[in-house]
Amino acid sequence: MLGIVAAVLFFVSFLVNAAEISTNHTFSSVNIMLLGLTALALHVAGIGSGWYRRR
Q: Cα 13 to the chain's mean position, in Å?
């Protein structure tokens, strides 16, 4: 799930950067990209990868 969130954040960051949309400092393309990298790191670490049942 976090991998999909990371992909969406990277895509939004790309659109903001490619369209040269002027945003405030909070929603700059670099900050969105860093949020995507954080979500990707959590996904690779196994957090948010899904539910499982113990037997």
A: 9
**This prediction's pTM:** 0.70
Report the Cα 30 to chain-centroid distance in Å: 11
Q: According to the 3-state scheme, what is the secondary structure of the chain?
A: CHHHHHHHHHHHHHHHHHCCCCCCCCCCHHHHHHHHHHHHHHHHHCCCCCCCCCC
Choose between 48 and 35: higher pLDDT.
35
50 near 4, Cβ under 8 Å? no
